[in-house]
Amino acid sequence: METQKIREAVQFLADGDKAIQKNWFKKPDWDVAGSCYEKAASCFKAARSYEQAIQAYLKASDALFKSNSIYMAAKTMEGAGNLASLQLKQPDRAADLYRQASDLYQTHMNPDRAAEMLEKAARALETVDVNQAIDFYNAACSLYESEDRGKFAIDTFIRTIAVMIRNKRFEAAIDILLRLREIYLSMNNNSGVSKTCLSIIIILLAASDEIEAKKQFQHFCQYAFVQSEESAVASILLDAFEQGDQELLEETVNRQIITFLDNEVAKLARNLHVPGGILRSSTNKVSLPQIPGAFLWNNGGELNMQGEEKEFDEDDYLSTYFKDEKEEDATLQEFSKSTERIDAPIEKESISLPDEDEEGLC
Hints:
- The protein is mainly α.
- 67% of the residues lie in helices and 3% in strands.
- It has helices spanning 2-19, 30-46, 50-66, 70-87, 91-107, 111-125, 130-146, 154-166, 170-186, 190-206, 210-220, 229-243, 246-253, 256-259, 263-270, 314-321, 325-340, 355-361, and strands at residues 285-287, 296-297, 303-304, 311-313.
- A two-stranded antiparallel sheet has the order 1-4. Strands 2-3 form a two-stranded antiparallel ribbon.
- It is elongated.
């Protein structure tokens, strides 16, 4: 099967070469040549001879361009890029082929397809060259804007922002978000505007730029953003940072409205940390109040009579001093009753101490 397809491909290549031969009585027939080369590429592809298929696609694109079939020239160039990316795993080569396809689509006055090719080039390079990938993403966004096609570019903008956040390019992400905000404003999409504004403030806080976050918040509040729920959440986030209140920050980023943001922004919000704040989940320890005359277990398993504030690990305490659940429940109930009588004096006979310690305490 594969051998037969290769033979067919070779014959199509020969027919194409013959069609472009020039003599005294015949001009090159680029239309026929382009069709033959495209058929050859399809046969090579079916035979899994991907390198030869790419070469055939390139010849087809050149022939179709010369025959003034610009759109088909772009399509065949895109086909070559797909093979380089998906089959040969050659991202740099694929990105270059996609860029050429983008130029051809743009020549054909098809900006949407041209921008799509730039985005394909960016995706091909994400794992090997992040900087160039971001450049391609940015170029795709700019192409949509230049052709006043912003409303068709929202998904591209969102993917661009996600890549930038994943790679800590916060300044570039904010620039794209501001441009996306303008698109939402032109569409009268208040919900999109509010989410974009909140995303910008979250990214600025993640970048440790609280001053700029406050400035942007005040600027956004001059518009409809001030009446949105996103505005209230942004205000609480800024208050949490100003007050150093990590608990307030955690409560805020766990609100449902945060989950409505783009995934990378939501992840960034959940990872925010107030400088100098203490995570509630960082410890299970609790601080017991001062109880005059009360006795508490210390870390050594001995009684403490000084009424000092003690810090203990609850799980470790229970596993050390209680052998079964019944004993644990009974002792916890007794302990609860003793803490309710904070101001009541404790009688001496209520405390039973070993004989060897009685003299020392007296």
